[in-house]
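User: Hi! I have a protein structure encoded as tokens and I'd like to know what sequence might fold into it. I'm fairly new to this, so please keep things simple.
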């Protein structure tokens, strides 16, 4: 058995297959495991660390919670319970606990003016089909929700009667202008009333690292796959290692890499037209991550918790609230969509300065408190080429339906093949699914 990709999906599939007595080889293109799970410790001082990849785990994410316990790791709250959040609209900053919307000069309808962001969402989402919140509904059944897939998320909110400024409030911190409304509604419904968010104490990368340690030398590093060939009842996988193209054959293959990476692997022969369309067309979200080390945790002096959302598609959080031994701190920030794409032509230094400016809109003192920082742009990562799958209108009920379907002994895993797209949960669940497919379990 060959598994392509040592992210969470590939590692979980390999782990379960090996436990069932199957011989497994995992081919990892890069020098480390984890894929888009990436904890950075350098260049930060005094043992501080922060996440360039996933930052939170939801309380509804059962597969991750099981894996964390099995690996003997510890969960801590994602954000500090002390202090208030900040929101920025049109350059105007306000503390969200104050609900002082007059500072933003918003033009809200009478029924919108006193509502929180959550209350606005609940008002305009309304009553959803009960099965929309069921994570067990397969991707191939999404056609039942085709009406939600016809519009982008802001278009759908507009069709429900939301004012332009209410839509701004409901979409603070991200860019959903290109994303299918079905994508957002599916996540909203599955999360339901779950508001608990966690992270792994010591870094999210401890989960894939612990899983890889158990696999030992079954994982081959710096071994990017260049070609997959189907030959009668066998599969041949060609990969590069030490400047040489090597081959390995198997009866079954697990492809556990982003579609953006699979596009660059030669496929002989090509998959079915539906599968090829999914590989080539499904859209990925552009995300830039900025991790900024400051001399002090200055936000606490203003009774803030380090969290903020802005209308420039930026979300900020205190990445080090649980790292209590130091006076320094790190604010993490994600920027998505069109704003993230603005950084792609920048040098690393230019991109970092751009990120400092985005964070300073919410926390102006960052301009003088900054000591050092990192800019990580997932579109430029050669083994990711995007942060996570974020289908455009029409893609969830057409292309996405074929993303997880096995073909000729080849099985497909990754967050893009799971209802929990964009989450570590989706990656782990998909690894468990392909293991069941291969082992013939329901």
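Assistant: Happy to help. Inverse folding works backwards from shape to sequence: for each of the 442 positions I chose a residue that suits the local structure. Here it is:
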């Amino acid at each position: 058995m060959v598994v392509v990709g040592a992210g969470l999906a590939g590692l979980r599939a390999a782990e379960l297959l090996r436990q069932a007595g199957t011989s497994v080889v995992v081919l990892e293109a890069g020098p480390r495991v984890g894929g888009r799970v990436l904890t950075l410790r350098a260049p930060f001082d005094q043992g501080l660390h922060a996440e360039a990849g996933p930052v939170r785990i939801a309380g509804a994410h059962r597969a991750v919670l099981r894996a964390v316990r099995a690996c003997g790791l510890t969960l801590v709250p994602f954000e500090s319970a002390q202090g208030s959040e900040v929101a920025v609209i049109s350059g105007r900053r306000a503390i969200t606990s104050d609900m002082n919307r007059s500072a933003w000069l918003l033009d809200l309808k009478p029924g919108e003016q006193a509502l929180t962001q959550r209350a606005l969402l609940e008002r305009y989402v309304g009553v959803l089909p009960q099965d929309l919140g069921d994570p067990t509904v397969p991707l191939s059944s999404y056609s039942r929700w085709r009406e939600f897939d016809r519009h982008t998320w802001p278009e759908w909110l507009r069709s429900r009667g939301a004012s332009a400024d209410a839509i701004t409030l409901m979409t603070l911190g991200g860019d959903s202008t290109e994303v299918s409304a079905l994508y957002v509604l599916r996540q909203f419904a599955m999360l339901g009333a779950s508001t608990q968010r966690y992270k792994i104490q010591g870094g999210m990368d401890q989960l894939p690292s612990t899983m890889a340690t158990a696999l030992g030398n079954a994982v081959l590093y710096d071994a990017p796959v260049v070609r997959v060939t189907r030959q009668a009842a066998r599969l041949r996988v060609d990969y590069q290692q030490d400047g040489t193209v090597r081959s390995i054959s198997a009866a079954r293959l697990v492809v556990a890499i982003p579609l953006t990476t699979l596009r660059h692997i030669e496929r002989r022969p090509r998959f079915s037209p539906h599968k090829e369309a999914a590989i080539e067309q499904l859209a990925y979200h552009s995300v830039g991550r900025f991790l900024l080390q400051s001399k002090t945790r200055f936000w606490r002096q203003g009774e803030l918790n380090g969290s903020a959302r802005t209308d420039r598609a930026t979300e900020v959080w205190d990445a080090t609230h649980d790292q209590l031994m130091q006076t320094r701190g790190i604010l993490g920030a994600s920027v998505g969509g069109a704003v993230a794409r603005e950084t792609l032509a920048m040098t690393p230094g230019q991109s970092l300065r751009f990120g400092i400016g985005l964070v300073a809109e919410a926390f102006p003192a960052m301009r003088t408190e900054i000591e050092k920082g990192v800019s990580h742009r997932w579109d430029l990562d050669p083994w990711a080429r995007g942060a996570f799958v974020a289908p455009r209108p029409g893609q969830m009920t057409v292309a996405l339906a074929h993303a997880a379907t096995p073909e000729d002994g080849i099985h497909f895993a990754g967050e893009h093949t799971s209802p929990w797209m964009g989450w570590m949960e989706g990656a782990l669940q998909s690894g468990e699914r392909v293991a069941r497919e291969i082992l013939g379990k329901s």
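A useful reference point when you look it over: The mean pLDDT is 95. Feel free to ask if any position seems puzzling.
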